[in-house]
Specification:
It is built from 5 helices and no strands. The protein has 92 residues and is an all-alpha fold. It has a domain of 59 residues. The longest helix has 22 residues. The protein is elongated, with a radius of gyration of 17 Å.
């Protein structure tokens, strides 16, 4: 499973790769591989239990889920660097 996790981590534009990199930044590559292997096992379990197919949520899944926290963190970091920040929503 660790080999599968490392292969998933090398994939481009997937939620699994994003999860690996988020964990690896905090815990290191080996622990991130184990955590991703666990995630893969949970996914496989639910796929077999529900008899469904896998649908990837995309590499920006975590950013969309915690959008406000992401904005606050980046604004705080920029203020620490001495940059004045004005946050405004973009007109769509």
């Amino acid at each position: 499973m660790i080999e599968c996790a490392r292969a998933a981590a090398r994939s481009k534009k997937s939620r699994l790769a994003a999860r690996y990199h988020r964990i690896a930044a905090r815990r290191g590559a080996k622990r991130a591989a184990v955590a991703l292997a666990h995630t893969l096992l949970v996914i496989v379990y639910h796929l077999l239990k529900d008899k469904t197919t896998y649908r990837d949520l995309g590499p920006d899944y975590y950013d969309k889920r915690n959008r406000d926290a992401l904005i606050r963190r980046h604004v705080h970091r920029l203020k620490e660097l001495g940059v004045t920040v004005i946050v405004a929503e973009e007109a769509s």
